Amino acid sequence: MTSTTLKALLSRFQDLNILVIGDFFLDRYLMIDPELAEKSLETGLEARQVVQIRNSPGAAGTVTSNLSALGVGRVRALGVIGKDGHGYDLKQGLEETSVDTSRLIESDRRFTPTYTKPISSKSGKELERLDVKNREVLPKDIEGRIISELTDLAPDSDGVIVLDQVQEQDCGVVTSRVREALAEIAMSSPNTIFFADSRTRIGQFRQVITKPNAHEAVRAEYPDFEKTPELPLLESCIRSFSKRISRPVYITLGAEGILCDDLESVHHIPGIPVSEPIDVVGAGDSTSAAIVSALCAGASYLNAGMLGVLVSSITIQQLGTTGTAKPEEIMARFIEVEHLL
């Protein structure tokens, strides 16, 4: 990939229409000043003092934020949130990043999934996180609405990104039934790029491009594997993985870059060295946004993976937040590291 190729690729993003379906979380950052700590008169426990509150879309919302930062022309959200204050804050955050929330389903039978992250204003260190998740199976009628909306929106989209964040079986948006419908819709929509990322069920997707990390990829093939996988094993896994799902596979390798099987060859795209400190939260989501945007804009699987590496090298240097990368930042980083790619 040359700088001319990259610039032309990025310029085509404005014409894209990408749908993101899955688990939209609210990331709620509470800045704590330890010097203002008080003791509760009622319990005698320390009462930590919040001096700033910052909200941002998380999980699937991190993907949409990255798509918007990349300059994608239309970004649509399909998921389920609660009729609560966290849901209000999440919708507001999505709309501030120009995301179309008109297909986001609001229900008084669901929580808005939320990661509450207390952070010391002095050290920047994150304290114990508080999670709000739905631990009951997604109601059948809501599940049906998700499938109906997906069926309606997917053929009209250049790309569909699926983000399966909730570990509890069928308690998130991407249930077993939604995965089955997704495979059928992907088969009947050959002009749309379908791409999935999942914390615990990546091996259960079919007919869509998948992006596991190294441990997820190996466990999908060898469920009891616990060691740190080495490259020869990952190359074997990615070939087996792509053959089984009938689609290309990207395996993220952290600092070592990305392994890509485009159904013809396996490519190792090296990572880009960056200086410490770094924050890897959300790096995978920024990689997904970059790869899918590139594929929708006509890039090869290899060049799309290269863009994913470039973008993640930028986002991990943004501390205490889920980072994004703008086209001008990507071009600047490419010029810095062109000799490495």
What does this structure look like?
The protein has ten helices and 17 strands. The chain has 341 residues and is of the alpha/beta class. The chain has a single domain, classed as Ribokinase (UDP-N-acetylmuramoyl-L-alanine:D-glutamate ligase, 3-Layer(aba) Sandwich). A hairpin with a 4-residue loop joins β16 and β17. α1 packs antiparallel against α10. The longest helix is centred in the last third of the chain and has 15 residues. The N and C termini lie close together (8 Å).
Per CATH, the superfamily is Ribokinase
Which parts are unreliable, with pLDDT below 50 for 5 consecutive residues or more? none
Strand order of the largest sheet: 8-6-1-12-13-14
Kindly give the count of domains. 1
What is the share of helical residues? 25-40%
Which helices and strands, and how do they pair?
Blueprint: H1 3-11, E1 17-22, E2 24-32, E3 38-39, E4 46-47, E5 50-59, H2 60-70, E6 74-78, E7 80-82, H3 85-96, E8 99-100, E9 105-107, E10 114-120, E11 130-132, H4 140-153, E12 159-164, H5 176-187, E13 193-198, E14 209-210, H6 214-221, H7 231-245, E15 249-252, E16 258-261, E17 266-269, H8 283-296, H9 301-315, H10 327-337
Helix pairs in contact: 1-10, 2-8, 4-5, 6-7, 8-9, 9-10
Main features:
341 residues; alpha/beta; six-stranded parallel β-sheet; 23% strand; globular
Short note summarizing the structure:
By secondary structure, the chain is of the alpha/beta class.
